[in-house]
């Protein structure tokens, strides 16, 4: 059996601003007019992130993307250009440093609603196949 994660719903205060920011940082397309009330970010051919406007309180969540080193460098460049503070460790203060784990690069930042984003080049959740 093959199972693919098709989409995620992320609650935010401003769905358009959140979708636009993530799409621009990842360098992927998005739409201000999605299906129903959502503002979708088309992360890949198999994954869409739907931002949905919710009232307070917004439950905080963590999302991680594994990317190739060249994509990591490009995304990090866009994070820096946008002036978004980032950090090398999940629980650290913003140090504007890149962390390393298992020979790969890793960085964390927070979306304006508090959601934590992570990009890494080597998964620590799964052993190499």
Automatic annotation (TrEMBL):
- Top-rank taxon of the source lineage equals Bacteria
What PROSITE patterns does the record point to? VOC (PS51819)
Q: Which residues does the UniProt record annotate as the domain VOC?
A: 4-122
Protein name (record): VOC family protein
Organism whose genome encodes this protein: Rugamonas rivuli
């Amino acid at each position: 059996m093959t199972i693919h994660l098709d989409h995620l719903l992320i609650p935010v205060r401003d769905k358009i601003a959140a979708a636009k920011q993530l799409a621009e940082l990842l360098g992927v397309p998005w739409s201000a007019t999605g299906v129903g009330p959502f503002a979708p970010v088309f992360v890949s051919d198999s994954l869409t992130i739907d931002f949905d406007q919710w009232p307070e309180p917004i439950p905080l969540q963590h999302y991680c993307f594994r990317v190739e080193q060249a994509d990591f460098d490009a995304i990090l460049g866009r994070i820096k250009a946008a002036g978004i503070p980032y950090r090398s460790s999940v629980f650290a203060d913003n140090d504007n440093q890149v962390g390393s784990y298992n020979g790969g690069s890793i960085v964390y930042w927070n979306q304006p609603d508090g959601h934590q984003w992570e990009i890494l080049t080597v998964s620590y959740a799964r052993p190499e196949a």
